[in-house]
Amino acid sequence: MNPKLAFNLSHSALIRIWHWLTFSVLIFSLFTVLIGNTLLKGRENVNLVKNSLKESGVTVTDQQARGVAHEFHDLIWTWHKIVGYGLIFLLFSRFIIEFLQSRHERILVRMKDAKNAMSSPGADIDDLKHFILVNWAYILFFLLLAFMGLTGLGMAYEDDVPWLDHMKHFNHTVHGYGQYLIYTYVVLHIGGAVMADIKKHKGLISGMINGNQ
What we know:
This protein is mostly helical and 213 residues long. The chain has a single domain (6-210), classed as Fumarate Reductase Cytochrome B subunit (Up-down Bundle). Helix content is 75%, strand content 0%. It has 8 helices and no strands. It has helices spanning 13-37, 46-55, 62-100, 107-117, 125-156, 162-165, 168-198, 204-210. The longest helix is centred in the middle third of the chain and has 39 residues, at 62-100. The mean pLDDT is 86.
């Protein structure tokens, strides 16, 4: 590893495709959460349904309106569940890709190389330490995704598997809190990448697009 180019290492086509596909799917997943908790929140739309139907000459009870509103709410969470399956598949594929990578492109190897590069003449110690820290953040993010995937699966099958029903409160609670860690990581990741590209590591983002550093 060139001690001066820790953040500007090349990335294989598989990693680049996986990165942007995962980013897109994750953003869509967060979008479904936002819509499900705001615009399509069942209880908040009961009056909207009643008034809309009333304008069309149809009168319904609160219970009937609540049923219609709940259908839209269920629809967005069905999409969230489908996207969740996609994220689990992508996470599993990332572990496979890691072993398909050439040795020098693997995360743990790059972290080890960065540590060894600290003793090289002219090495930017702070930058190399930052590189190692960022890669630890990647690993923790993968573990967080795995945790969110497991609790999400628990929620998806809680009505079909008896022992999962007993974990309903736990799964819903930790999955709900876990989303805020996802938000935090995404914001920090995007902000950090943009700042690094603007300042010290120009071409960082384009390198994740076209692979040329």
